[in-house]
Amino acid sequence: MDVVYQSLLSAGLPVIIVDILCNWYSKLFFAVRWDGELFAYFAVGSGVRQGGCLSPAIFNGFMNLFIIQLKLQGIGCHVLHCF
Predict the structure, then answer these.
(1) What pTM value is reported for the model?
(2) If you count Cβ atoms within 10 Å of the first and of the last residue's Cβ in the chain, which end, N or C, has fewer?
(3) Given pLDDT bands bounded at 50, 70 and 90, which one contains residue 15?
(4) pLDDT tens-digit readout, 25-70
């Protein structure tokens, strides 16, 4: 998640907001439910919350910066001279 948060800072998001998100996401734990039984919890070290209202915005912010980096390096798909 460090790359995502660095991307959010690079995009101009205030540090306090990024700190809050970092704290919130560092406390993610999930468990697997199989056939009605709940199995051991495990920590999540990467990704965004599934179904979280902020998750699409965080993901999109990261992907936009990722695409910009690809364009700057000339890596990616070009169709009719369009990246």
Answers:
(1) 0.57
(2) C
(3) very high
(4) 788 788 888 898 888 888 877 667 777 777 888 888 778 888 888 8
CA angle 26–64–75, rounded 5-degree value? 115
Ranges of each domain in the chain? 2-73
Q: Comparing C-alpha atoms, which of 62, 23, 28, 66 is closest to residue 45? A: 28
> String of b and e for 11-21 (b: at least 16 CB within 10 Å)?
eebeeeebeeb
- DSSP letter at 2 equals H
